[in-house]
Design goal:
single chain; 16 strands; 4-stranded antiparallel sheet; alpha+beta; flat; 259 residues; 2 helices
């Protein structure tokens, strides 16, 4: 081994710095998009594990969703949420800038910002799109669920208040007489079922608060914790009873000794 012949360091791979808080795969290609806590959004080629493109924003990332084919048949749209409550719509496009560092490395893609809005006062925790691709729902740590009209250029529809910060969203497709609903999971064991807002008959000229929707709220409690508490109480009762019997037996022995 010749220590006198040294090579300059080479970058082997590039990754996001900080904690990765969101990840989604492309519905049509072997690619994945991720968002980090430092606000970086990256696209990776899964077979080669190579970074294809990357964008960075000032606010920290908190959620990511690859738009379904019902929204973008080309599968080139990614929804990203941030800690300051901002929602950004990013689109993958061919990078024609030959001076770009990624272009020099053989990457032909880049993220382009197509839309941005601020539906929440705190971090966006989750994003969901209804099956037909017409309505988007975002859940936030500010205890609200905000609806946007995708077909009208992400026009704000309104929001519904939740009893606790939102942790998950899932659309329940309407079948037969059952209307389209959004299932909302919140902290502290709360779960809500919110009927999808009608896009045409809403009046939000005075307020974005959606008071006329059918909303069902349930609170779930842990049965396991309750059983454990009952078992602990029973053990304490048995221990008290054992000590009481020992005291009575000790008193009885002293009386016998004293005659």
């Amino acid at each position: 081994y010749n220590t006198t012949q040294r090579k300059s360091p080479e970058k082997v791979m590039s990754y996001l710095s900080g904690e990765v808080v969101g990840l989604a795969c492309s519905p049509v290609a072997l690619a994945a998009a991720s968002i980090a806590q430092n606000g970086s959004v990256a696209l990776y080629d899964l077979p080669s594990c190579q970074l294809l493109c990357q964008s960075h924003f000032s606010s920290g990332g908190s959620a990511l969703l690859w738009a379904p084919l019902s929204v973008d048949p080309r599968a080139c749209t990614v929804f990203t949420g941030y800690t300051d409550g901002v929602l950004r719509v990013l689109q993958l496009e061919k990078d024609t800038d030959v001076s770009s560092p990624l272009h020099k490395k053989g990457s032909e893609w880049r993220f382009t910002l197509k839309h941005a809005c601020k539906p929440h006062g705190k971090a966006i925790s989750t994003i969901a799109v209804e099956p037909k691709g017409a309505i988007m729902a975002t859940g936030g740590m500010d205890c609200t669920v905000f609806f946007l009209n995708i077909k009208s250029g992400y026009e704000p529809v309104g929001f519904v208040k939740t009893p606790a910060p939102v942790t998950g969203l899932q659309w329940s497709p309407g079948t037969g007489k059952r209307p389209l609903c959004l299932l909302v999971c919140c902290e502290e064991g709360f779960m809500m079922e919110i009927e999808a807002p009608p896009m045409e008959s809403l009046d939000v000229s005075k307020s974005f608060v959606l008071d006329g929707l059918n909303v069902t709220t349930r609170k779930f409690s842990s049965v396991k914790d309750k059983l454990r508490a009952e078992e602990a109480a029973e053990r304490r009762r048995v221990e008290r009873e054992r000590r009481r019997k020992e005291r009575e037996e000790a008193k009885e022995r002293r009386r016998r000794e004293l005659g």
